[in-house]
Amino acid sequence: MKNFLFNLLFLTFTITSFSQIKHGLRDDQGRHIIPRGFVINTNDHKGEVFFNSDDYARQVRMGANYQVIRLELGRVSEFPGGQVEQKYLQKLDELVALGKNHDIKTVFKMTVYGVDKFVWQEFWNNKEDKQYTTYINAWKVIWERFAEEPYVVGYDVVNEPRKLEMDISYKDLTDKYLVPLYQRIIDESQKINPDKKILFQSIFMNKGEKIDNNQYAEITSAINRKNIVFAPHIYQNNINYIQKNMDRFDKESDMLKAPILIGEWGFPTFAKTDTTIVGKLGQLEYRKLYIKTAEVFDKMGVGSIKAWFLGNRTMQNFLPGGPSTWSIFSDKTDAGTVERKYITDVISRPFPQAIAGNIQSFLFNFAKRELNVHFKSDNNKGASKIFIGANRHYPDGFSIIVNDDFVMYYNPLKNVGLEVCKTTKDSNPADFIWDTKTQKLIVLKWGKDNTNYKIKIVPGLRNF
Q1: CA 164/CA 204 separation, integer angstroms
Q2: What is the 3-state secondary structure (H, E, C) of 338-349?
């Protein structure tokens, strides 16, 4: 079977009228997966960023099964001021290995940082084909290095492409320049690693040119290539536009015939937010905004990558609210540990990471602290994994209710694993394993194959 095959799962109906989630992805075992994780920076405004095994263990305990490593163009290319740095490539090897050791898959994303200057108009004009050739050669360094690594699953090939001063409409820039570039990159990539996926984005519009409070231009022409994934960003700060923005992305996905994986999300937090509970920039408003975004993602069944898994050595100052950051930790180190809990508890919500079967729907109810998952089982696909995050969401213990007739629970005071409350002749409690280290429920086998299941994870000990 091909390494980690992404598949767009079109809406098909089972005999019980349930339908699979539209944007589901598949791993190399054929399990239905929901990717979640973080953007991993190799540097910040203070310089190099370094991570260790504990940082990756922390990611896993926050629900990560993916990482998106942000590449610096100046360290893998021959653009002016740049060069291919072997030390940097070794650093990328280490990050991939850290992810692999913690069962986290890797996507690489190319930024245009680290060169003397990068002028988008010159890039699009591509005089004598030098710009595109140099850019694709930079990607070839990565493609060739990781072609045989199954834990590297794809490449986000152009991060937030821009128009800036170029005298052209966003539609024409997309149709005449961006889409043909994507086609060329995909064709070149698949000569080297045909099983890897190409992730792509839309044009990041100029300041003041939002449509429905969405900074990203619509893609209206097809790419017509296989193995592609639509990876839009959403940094929506108006709660009333979240669903509308995602509905537009969903429409684009249909046209492109590509599933959605949200490449970045989460409006940046301000310095003021760390010390303010109520008000426009207060933590309660941020939590409300993030919860709404999370609910929209989960109802659509899309995976999502949060920026950034970083400490807070610096802040940027380009928004009206003052200094701000995407870092999820507030301590002034490169890899932090002090969580901004008002957003991390939302990011780290329970969800089905990998299901042996077809996920039909899932949603975590924040008010009730209840995860509901509907799926159809397929035991030939192996073990299933559900991230629960009990350390943050269920300090009072949790119960697992399967089809209302099989119940197990975890009592944190005993710390003896899962206990059985209620079972059936088709269920085997020994197939249900609670992994405290990774905060995951592992199900080795479902009691019945090719059967519709409804699972609830609820707070407390349902000992009845």
Answers
A1: 9
A2: CECHHHHHHHCC
Kindly compute the dihedral angle of the four CA atoms of residues 25, 28, 33, 36, in this order, to the nearest 10 degrees: -90
Q: How far apart are CA 252 and CA 270, in angstroms?
A: 32
Question: Going by C-beta distance under 8 Å and a sequence separation of 6 or more, which residues neighbour residue 137?
Answer: 77, 78
**462: how many CB neighbours lie within 10 A of its CB?**
17
The count of C-alpha atoms lying within 13 angstroms of the C-alpha of 208, restricted to the half-sphere facing its C-beta, is 1
The model's pLDDT over 189-222, given as tens digits with 9 standing for 90+, comes to 999 999 999 999 999 999 989 888 999 999 999 9
Tell me if 341 sits within 8 A of 285, measured CB to CB: no
Residue 23, pLDDT score: 87
Bridge partner residues of 152 (DSSP):
106
For the question of whether the overall pTM of this predicted structure is more than 0.85, the answer is yes
Q: What is the DSSP string of 404-434?
A: TTEEEEE-TTT-S-EEEEE--TT--GGGEEE
pLDDT single digits (tens) 244-265: 999 999 999 999 999 999 999 9
